[in-house]
User: Fold LacI family transcriptional regulator from Micromonospora sediminimaris.
Amino acid sequence: MAVRDPAMTDVARLAGVSHQTVSRVLNGHPNVREQTRLRVQAAIAELGYRPNRAARALVTGRSQVIGVVAQNTTLYGPASLLAALEQTAAESGFAVSVGSVRDLDHRSISAVVERHLAHRVAGIVVIAPVESAGEALERLPKDVPLVTVDGDPHRPMPLVTVDQAAGARAATQHLLDAGHRTVWHVSGPSDWFDSAGRIEGWRAALTSAGAEIPPLVPADWSAAAGYRCGQMLARMPDVTAVFTANDHLALGVLRALHEHGRRVPDDISVVGFDDVPEAAYFIPPLTTVRPDFGAVARASLEMLLTQIESVSGGALRRTIAPTLVARRSVGPPPRP
Amino acid sequence: MAVRDPAMTDVARLAGVSHQTVSRVLNGHPNVREQTRLRVQAAIAELGYRPNRAARALVTGRSQVIGVVAQNTTLYGPASLLAALEQTAAESGFAVSVGSVRDLDHRSISAVVERHLAHRVAGIVVIAPVESAGEALERLPKDVPLVTVDGDPHRPMPLVTVDQAAGARAATQHLLDAGHRTVWHVSGPSDWFDSAGRIEGWRAALTSAGAEIPPLVPADWSAAAGYRCGQMLARMPDVTAVFTANDHLALGVLRALHEHGRRVPDDISVVGFDDVPEAAYFIPPLTTVRPDFGAVARASLEMLLTQIESVSGGALRRTIAPTLVARRSVGPPPRP
DNA sequence: AAACCGGGTGTGACCGCTAACAGACAGCGA
DNA sequence: TCGCTGTCTGTTAGCGGTCACACCCGGTTT
Assistant:
């Protein structure tokens, strides 16, 4: 029943010009007389004409869509990144199509990438925080613009990443500066590059301060794991400073410490990573490291767009420095 | 330099059939000889052929993409919903294109919807939790399948929504059952339907229990607001039970109570809403109401697909009941 | 005066696919 | 034997844009 949407020829007929002229007006082509342009624009408005992106994508071979591959988009980090990407892309006239994967293995990633390629997306952003994702990407067709975020620093692909090591160094140093003799680290899953970078930064800070390096406390990203690790740490009287790989872990640690009667920051200091909006309302307010997701999104898109627009590549790597946010969960170590 | 992607005709030539037969194989059309089908599939595999969705979208007039309009996708609720939608859509062979808006006013929403329409999306899901969103939707072209989520219950549009009132009733009743004489409520922003529904449920539960209705404590969705409200509530000795409109508010309230030396649940009981993953690790673990985002996503998509596939509409309204998750933040009122 | 230029516009082909129709060929009842 | 079915396949015409090109025309240049 619905009448066919107006097409370019309809606009052209109404304006008394050819469809090509309409196209020129639409694309801001210079050689159109002002008067003609106005006539065409009036016709467009009158008909409520809306250019068909599918047709455009067909003839140009590329749509104005950017495909994103992500996992676990309910976590604060990925969700923020996704939102920032969408925002930034929209400003450049691109739409964003998300493809979530349950696991970051070769099969899942390829499947989603295939889906994006079938839509002839202009470019793809892969949030690839684990090893297995990297492998999947190497086998991909090489003619589609691609940027990885939080991916493998040792792989020769365009990469934008938060400087995890720098953030971790800052966190650890902050604790050392407060007077602690050493700092324990509750880390994220071992196969994530984020984890690896944070561990590396933590070790580096301790090493360069000549501090003893305590054993790593491995966990995942959840508050539940933080709670378990916290229960252990709470029983160790010589632990006075803990740096957790993210804020959720810190939350779990805080609760465990609280239940064991160890006060924060009087007995133990805690620093997190991510600066989730709630971190300021933990008990006590959490000192943490804030990555700039907006900057990551902007850098990714910029890299993608240079790839899309030209053959010559710009920078292949961009690192975004995070900042430390000091709150009340850090204090000097207890006097013995 | 990149060689043109193989098209249907290339596959056809290699398989020694017409492009139309290739199309038939791709679309699972019945009348194709088994042997031919195999030949075509072999050719597809050999060339690495990938059907061009843009071309398909052009000729059919609809792409296999669903447009989503959302605001503030970094919040836990919207992010979960988005992820669930993506997941569900993928299972039906649809991609999801997100369009975030900063504000849910007429202009912003229309702009994003226009963008989706230009792409000829098959349908649109609008997460429209505030009044101003509803107005924008009424002026939209009526021939595009549309579903609103968490929208205005009084507007005659296809709507899927969490049963906010039921959740709030359950939370309030749970506190009353624990022996509290009445329950205070820290509410979300007044222009959100979610807030309104939760307030309504809270009032209803108190009314039907014959309990006194304390003044509403208005806030927004943030932990910061929860903290401010909590500081006030902590100073009122007769407050023994608080129901907050979401878990972040609860977090803020918990901290304020803690700082004022009021123990939870011994002195005051608290119930939240959303069941964010961290709620189990608040101090103390938070009793809360869990909406089923997966169910919301499934219902939305189902409604959208029936609209897409046929003219006759199915149900115009679906309400998803949330469940109460009991944890340690609720106990009996203190003995006077 | 002929040749040249460049701004403004129209013409036709084509992008890769689907829909509608047409044809070939086998089986089968009349 | 002649239709008449039904299965399988090919042919053709678009969908709504962009691109390459041709055209017209007034103003310079040679």
